[in-house]
Amino acid sequence: MGGKIFVDCSTIDPATSLAVGKAVTTSHTIDPPKFYDAPVSGGTPGAEKATLTFMVGAAADDPTFPLLKEIFSYMGTSINATGGPSLGLAAKLSNNYLSGMIALATSEAMNLGMRLGLDPKVLSDCFKTSSGGSWVNSTVNPVPGVCPEAVTSRGYEGGFKVQLMKKDMTLAIEAAQQVGAKLVLGDSGLAAYSAAADDPHCRDRDSRVVYRWLGGIEPEVKK
C-alpha cells in the first residue's frame, strides 16, 4: 500500500470517511499512502455521457489534485477541490439534501398547478423562466411526459433510486445535527422519501417517483 493513492467515491457519513482515511494514511510510515473522498453527482445520465461532477476532499493546491483531476476528467466535466478530507462528502450530502428538497417541492407545485387546470408542459415552461425554475424542472421533471427523454417518462425505471435518496437525506440530517445546523424542512422531506421508499408502487424507482407518492396526476406517455 505504500505510496499508493486511494479514492473513495461512496456517499457515506464524513466521520466514517475520516476514520478510513486515517487507517489508510497511517498504515505505512515510509512513503505513506494517500486517501481522498470523492463522491460524484450526475446519476446514470452523467455516467453514460461522462459529465459527472466530482467533489474531491482535497485542497486546490494539493500536489496530488492535478493527477486526480486528470483521471476524473475521463468520467466527468466538473472536478471540484472542496478543501480537505471529508469535505467532498460534506458537499455531496449538502447537494443531495438540496436536490431532494427541490424535487419534492417541484412535485408538489406541479401537482398543485395541474389540479388547478394547468397543462404540465405549460406549467414547467412557466417555471423555467421564473423564480421557481431548477435543473430538476427542466431536465428531469417529476411529471411523466414533460421531459420525454428523462427517467420520469419511463415509469421512473432506473435513475437514482428513492431508497438512496432516503439514505442520503438521513445522512445529511444526521450530519446537520452533529454540527448544529438547523434544517427546517429536513424531517418532513425525510418522511416523504421514507414513505415513498416503503410504497410498493414507488420502491426501486427513481427518487422523483415521490410525485407518484404524493398522488400526482400521471399523464399517459406516448411511445
TrEMBL record:
<dbReference type="InterPro" id="IPR013328">
    <property type="entry name" value="6PGD_dom2"/>
</dbReference>
<dbReference type="InterPro" id="IPR036291">
    <property type="entry name" value="NAD(P)-bd_dom_sf"/>
</dbReference>
<dbReference type="GO" id="GO:0050661">
    <property type="term" value="F:NADP binding"/>
</dbReference>
<feature type="domain" description="3-hydroxyisobutyrate dehydrogenase-like NAD-binding">
    <location>
        <begin position="88"/>
        <end position="213"/>
    </location>
</feature>
<dbReference type="GO" id="GO:0051287">
    <property type="term" value="F:NAD binding"/>
</dbReference>
<comment type="similarity">
    <text>Belongs to the HIBADH-related family. 3-hydroxyisobutyrate dehydrogenase subfamily.</text>
</comment>
<dbReference type="GO" id="GO:0008442">
    <property type="term" value="F:3-hydroxyisobutyrate dehydrogenase activity"/>
</dbReference>
<comment type="pathway">
    <text>Amino-acid degradation; L-valine degradation.</text>
</comment>
<dbReference type="GO" id="GO:0005739">
    <property type="term" value="C:mitochondrion"/>
</dbReference>
<dbReference type="InterPro" id="IPR008927">
    <property type="entry name" value="6-PGluconate_DH-like_C_sf"/>
</dbReference>
<dbReference type="Pfam" id="PF14833">
    <property type="entry name" value="NAD_binding_11"/>
</dbReference>
<protein>
    <recommendedName>
        <fullName>3-hydroxyisobutyrate dehydrogenase</fullName>
        <ecNumber>1.1.1.31</ecNumber>
    </recommendedName>
</protein>
<keyword id="KW-0101">Branched-chain amino acid catabolism</keyword>
<keyword id="KW-0520">NAD</keyword>
<dbReference type="InterPro" id="IPR006115">
    <property type="entry name" value="6PGDH_NADP-bd"/>
</dbReference>
<dbReference type="InterPro" id="IPR029154">
    <property type="entry name" value="HIBADH-like_NADP-bd"/>
</dbReference>
<dbReference type="Pfam" id="PF03446">
    <property type="entry name" value="NAD_binding_2"/>
</dbReference>
<dbReference type="GO" id="GO:0006574">
    <property type="term" value="P:L-valine catabolic process"/>
</dbReference>
<feature type="domain" description="6-phosphogluconate dehydrogenase NADP-binding">
    <location>
        <begin position="3"/>
        <end position="82"/>
    </location>
</feature>
<keyword id="KW-0560">Oxidoreductase</keyword>
